[in-house]
Structure formats: structure tokens, C-alpha cells
Amino acid sequence: MNKIVENDVVPPTASLSPVPASGGLLAGKVAFVTGAGRGIGAAAARLFAEEGARVLLAARSQDQLEAVAGEIRAAGGVAEHVVCDLADPVSVRAAVDRAVQVFGRLDVAFNNGATGQPPGPLDELAEADFDQLYAVNLKGAWVAMSAEIAAMRATAGRGAIVNTSSVGALTANPQLPAYGALKRALNALTASAAATYGPENVRVNAVAPGTTLTELLREWDERSPGTVDALNARTPLGRAAEPREIAEAAAWLLSDRASYVTGAVLRVDGGMLA
């Protein structure tokens, strides 16, 4: 079933909205963000708008999207939203198409949306849970990248994509084995896309967050008290990141200031894997 719901009111002049040529890291760009209802995605949507982008927010929760988009508009930014399920390829393609319909082009995309797994050894993970992880965290990202590249080719003629990986994909991950494995596969997909589309001036990179104070992490800490403290003890900076700190790295990679960076997996982990 197609799980896509558009916001009811789209300004008829949205695609013609004037944006200053300078004054922000992403000024003049149209940005597409998945997982934008909360956590890193919501922080990124706010930041990208502050940096001059017109932003299309995508996530599963209509209420969360409306709240974040409303905050952006109240602060003077330009944002619209679309409900999108990353496990549904039709929904994902329609969401990317919506960015072009609303704003007339697509310049940058932040594929941040993901789902987590119950912590524990791989033999205790249900097959249905693994299938859902694959559908969202790897196949969903692949579908999104394919649609984004097509949209960039057809409109801007160039572009930049950032995928959200994890430091858990860069080392053994006994507590989140399937999550780590699929994020490692996403790193490989990122590198392959960078090599393939670099000649078309489409850059593809990833950020690998360390301990970050998202809802998913807080839920894990509630189920297993002391999780965050233990992770912070392994981190040279001695603390967890705020979601906006991850968003800042993504914004730089998407901006023209990172014009010679592609195929990279940028650790934003407080030194955890130093």
C-alpha cells in the first residue's frame, strides 16, 4: 500500500521563493531530509533551513513533521513535508518527486531515516526484525538514492547526498549486529555511488555518528540503565552528541565548501574510534 500523505496546503509560489545567493551554507539549495520528524533528521531540517535551504521533510509521523515544519516556518525558513515510509519504495520515490513538485528542483539530500533493533546477540534477533531493518536501513536508502540522483540529473544537473551510517558499522557490534552490518553495507553503497556519479558532479558521502542523544538512544538507556554512561566512558570527549552536532557535519558535507569530498565516511563520534 502506498503510504504517502502530503501536507494540505502548498504555497503556489513555493518553487519560485526567492533565496539569497549568499548568507548561508546551503543558500539557494533545495534539500530533502528523511527521518525528519525527530532526532538528527529534525535537527538537520531546522539547520538546513537556517543555512538558507528550502527543505522538504519526510518521515512516517504526520504530527511530528507538522511540528518541525511549523517551527522552521515560524523562524522564517521555508519548509514543506510529506509522510513517507522508507520500507515502501513507492512512498519513497513519491516523496522525492514531491520535493521537485514543490520547489522545482533537488540539490541535496540527507538520507537519515532508519529503524533500530532490539539490543542483543544476532541469534536472538527475530527474522521479521532483520527483514524490517534491511527494508528500511539498506533498501530504503538505496531506493532514496536512486530517486534523488534521477531528480538531481533532471533538475539541478549536479548535487550532493549524505547518508547516515554509524560508528557501530566500523567495528564489531555485538549488541546491534544486524544494525551494524546493514550500516556497513550502506557505507559500501555510499562509496560505490561516489565512484559512479562523481563524473556527473554528484557527491555522495556518509556521516557515522557516535553516541547521540536521540529518542532511540534514550529508549535503549531506559531499557538498559547505564548504557549512555558506559558509551561516554569510551569517548575521549566524555559526553554524547546533541543531534544538531551530527546535523552540522551533514550540512558541511552537503555544502559547496566540501566540493572535493566524496566517498567519505565522516566519523562524528567524540573520538570514540580514535
Describe this protein with a few key phrases.
Rossmann fold, single chain, 274 residues, 8 strands, globular, alpha/beta, 8-stranded mixed sheet
Describe this structure in words.
By secondary structure, this protein is of the alpha/beta class. It has one domain (25-268): Rossmann fold (3-Layer(aba) Sandwich), CATH 3.40.50.720. It has 8 helices and 8 strands; from the N terminus they run ββαβαβαβαβαβαααβ. Strand 2, helix 1 and strand 3 form a beta-alpha-beta unit.
Counted beta strands: 8
Specify the oligomeric state.
Answer: single chain
Low-confidence stretches: 1-21
The shape is: globular
Gyration radius from CA atoms, angstroms: 18 Å
Helix percent reads 40-55%
Alpha-beta content class? alpha/beta
**Total of helices:** 8
Task: Domain count, please report it.
Answer: 1
The percent range for strand residues is 5-15%
Instruction: Give the second-level CATH assignment, the architecture.
Output: 3-Layer(aba) Sandwich
The CATH fourth-level homologous superfamily: NAD(P)-binding Rossmann-like Domain
Through-space gap between termini: 45 Å
H and E string: EEHEHEHEHEHEHHHE
Summarize the main sheet: 8 strands, mixed
Query: What's the pLDDT, averaged over the residues?
Result: 92
CATH class: Alpha Beta
Topology-level CATH name: Rossmann fold
